[in-house]
Specification:
The protein is built from six helices and 23 strands. It is an alpha+beta fold. It folds into four domains: 25 residues, no CATH class; 96 residues; 104 residues; 99 residues, no CATH class. A six-stranded mixed sheet has the order 4-3-2-8-7-6. Strands 10-11-9-13-12 form a five-stranded mixed sheet, with helices on one face. It has a five-stranded antiparallel sheet with strand order 17-16-15-14-18, with no helix packed on it. Strand 3 and strand 4 form a beta hairpin. Helix 5 crosses helix 6. The longest helix has 20 residues. It binds zinc ion (2 copies). The site of one zinc ion has 7 residues, from helix 4.
């Protein structure tokens, strides 16, 4: 018979609730503070790049104020842990450039009873320069990638490709959250490109990618520039040296003319333009650049005779004869591609 006493709510005499004190849902609710609301919520963002600060941590964000507002307002609310199926309605009014007011209505159930309440949160839009913009503004950097070619200048294509690789590397590292892997400056110099970078990670990544894609080697040259909190600070120069020759270059080596097919770390592979046979020329063998295949012009074939090829020089219009490449199938009246080398013409085909 002990159950009879517990079957009624001790406060209102209605049916008892499930708790040990026997209070019904309504009476329990009446003495529970189930919604607490901080009067303000602060959002800190970087006015230059839009990054958001959470605690001490900055993250990049594309979110606009309208998208951030509701979540920010809700971050000021504390709900009793037993509130079930909470729903929120947030209305935001802009007050000034750095203030908005959010009216939040909360509904749900607690102890089986429907609940509803509202509160107002002041949203503060706080500007602060982020870690990255702060470093860039202070001209802070950790390295310089210098892209150069060996014994020649960079071609336009190499300049374009190296620049694109640098930007792609930055975008990919930033996308992975490496915020300080930025490029603070990228400029063409007399002999190549200088890329000023915010971290050694991006300096290394660019150097690796450029030397791999364009053919070359890189060396790193660290220099001690100071100390921070007892730790040495280095600035690193990454010197990327592209190989002296490009695929498609026509060179002269050991009396033979070669068109380069591939450039490797210590040799080039090419085709001998007289015989059509492949040849390898090691780095230490002397070579001389004649030009690039893409610079070739067309010359008219006038006749074929005893291993010689009669041509009209496309510049001087003079009739000349050159040795006929053994692999070349051509008839009088056709055009062949030639490169000028001083006073002679080199037939490419
Ligand atoms: Zn009651
Ligand atoms: Zn910023």
């Amino acid at each position: 018979m002990a159950d009879i006493r517990e079957a009624f709510c001790p406060r209102c005499g209605g049916p008892a609730g499930e708790g040990i004190d026997g209070l019904c849902g309504k009476c329990r609710l009446a003495e529970t503070r189930w919604l607490e609301c901080e009067p303000r919520a602060v959002h800190t963002y970087c006015p230059s790049c839009g990054a958001q600060k959470s605690g001490q941590l900055w993250t990049d964000s594309e979110q606009e104020r309208q998208e951030i507002g509701p979540g920010l307002a809700l971050s000021a609310l504390r709900l009793h842990p037993e509130v079930r199926r909470p729903q929120f309605e947030v209305g935001i009014r802009e007050v000034s450039a750095n203030r908005s007011m959010a009216d939040v209505t909360v509904t749900g159930t607690l102890y089986g009873e429907p609940i509803r309440d509202r509160c107002t949160v002041e949203l503060v839009w706080n500007k602060e320069q982020c870690d990255r913009c702060n470093r860039i503004a202070g001209s802070y950097y950790e390295g310089i990638v210098q892209v150069r070619a060996t014994d020649r200048r960079l071609t336009d294509r190499e300049l374009d490709v190296a620049t694109r690789i640098a930007h792609e590397t930055e975008a990919s590292l930033q996308g992975e959250g490496a915020r300080l892997s930025y490029i603070s400056d990228l400029k063409e110099t007399k002999d190549g490109i200088d890329i000023v970078v915010g971290s050694q990670a991006i300096g290394l990544a660019i150097s690796q990618a450029v030397s791999q894609r364009l053919g070359g080697r890189y060396t790193t040259h660290p220099k001690l520039v100071g100390e921070k909190a007892g730790r040495p600070i280095y600035r690193v120069t990454y010197l990327v040296r592209l190989y002296p020759f490009l695929r498609g270059d026509v060179i002269e080596s050991g009396g033979a003319d070669l068109e380069i097919v591939s450039v490797e770390s210590n040799h080039v592979r090419g085709v001998d333009l007289a015989t059509g046979r492949p040849r390898t020329v090691r780095d230490e063998e002397p070579k001389r650049l004649i030009g690039h295949g893409s610079d070739a012009t067309e010359a008219l074939v006038t006749h074929l005779d005893h291993g010689m090829l009669g041509l009209i020089d496309p510049v001087t219009s003079a009739a000349i004869e050159v040795p006929r490449p053994s692999w070349l199938t051509v008839e009088a009246g056709a055009q062949v591609r030639v490169l000028r080398d001083r006073d002679r013409l080199v037939v490419l085909g």
